[in-house]
Amino acid sequence: MYLPKRFIDLAARLGGLPGIGPKAADRLVFYLLDQSEEDVQELADALVAARKEIRFCRQCGNFTQDDLCEVCQDVSRETQLLCVVEEIRDLAAIERTGAYHGLYYVLHGRIDPIARVGPAELQLNLLTERVVAGHIREVIIATNPNFNGDITAMYIAKLLMPMGVRVTRIATGIPKGSDLEFADMFTLTQALEKRTDVET
Amino acid sequence: MYLPKRFIDLAARLGGLPGIGPKAADRLVFYLLDQSEEDVQELADALVAARKEIRFCRQCGNFTQDDLCEVCQDVSRETQLLCVVEEIRDLAAIERTGAYHGLYYVLHGRIDPIARVGPAELQLNLLTERVVAGHIREVIIATNPNFNGDITAMYIAKLLMPMGVRVTRIATGIPKGSDLEFADMFTLTQALEKRTDVET
Fold this sequence. Notes:
2 copies of one chain form a homodimer.
Chain A: H1 5-15, H2 22-33, H3 37-53, E1 55-56, E2 63-64, H4 70-73, E3 78-85, H5 88-97, E4 102-106, H6 124-133, E5 138-141, H7 147-160, E6 166-169, H8 185-193
Parallel strand pairs in A: 3-4, 3-5, 5-6
Antiparallel strand pairs in A: 1-2
Helix pairs in contact in A: 1-2
């Protein structure tokens, strides 16, 4: 106990955050104690303000400080195209590509038989209401291409297809820039099965 | 701009901290928004309290919430043994070994000719006063074994030796558990020159 209690307390809290180990936490405290009181106060205020003011978009489940999120408020979006994702971080990943211009629906979860999460926990009635009320033309299911994501996709597809909406699934295959020799056998099998004609 | 302003602001602040890149910052914000308001408030309070209440020990320059730090207040310490380090993080590294039971003097810097930091900037008169007033028997200079640390050590040694105190320098050599073949030539040269007799 060669360091004051406040130091140890802050380091323990920072060390409990994801991706920050005990050594990195100590280094952060050393750094923060070297900053001005104003800067540290501003960081603390930013933490509290973010947690207090950020909520879920009423329409799509994205983060927002308002009633509707930036995406739902954006009038340039294709409003008849809906992308279903498991988490907001997946929405963020898709937005970073700049390749998608439709709207979203965030499930905030997935069907997970081992964790006993079934369709009932996902409030899928909000999704079906949205598809009807939003005159959605196509639903792109972008849940993760793993066991839970795939069964979630299958369940949602079966739920929505009778409603006359086009339901698609993001493509799986060999990632761009990677090597065939390092691809796992399931991915490589999928890539062979879902091969596409070469366009010249 | 698919995420609210508060999110982006907090992620930018966290991403400005050492060891936290933009992706890790985003992940931290996602995590923090998933915690209770109370937990985030407590983290913010811990930040502000640490910065406000932690100051430098009047005697040795370590962090403390009091006038004297935990080490200086510890009556079980060898009070005639003084270890000089550049920064508090060096003191922390030595404390973690559990191998040292004396007191410390933190320079909060080092002589650095390129950055135009000379002996005058280090307030070494506080060190000499301490050596006299503390009846110090031995001063272990544990500045870093690099160019700036070595000239700082040399300067301090020349300053203190006329005062009749024993002045020592931490050993340099091949780190325990490492391979000779990967040691740099300066370290290996030092390790040869400073070889010690084998005790059986």
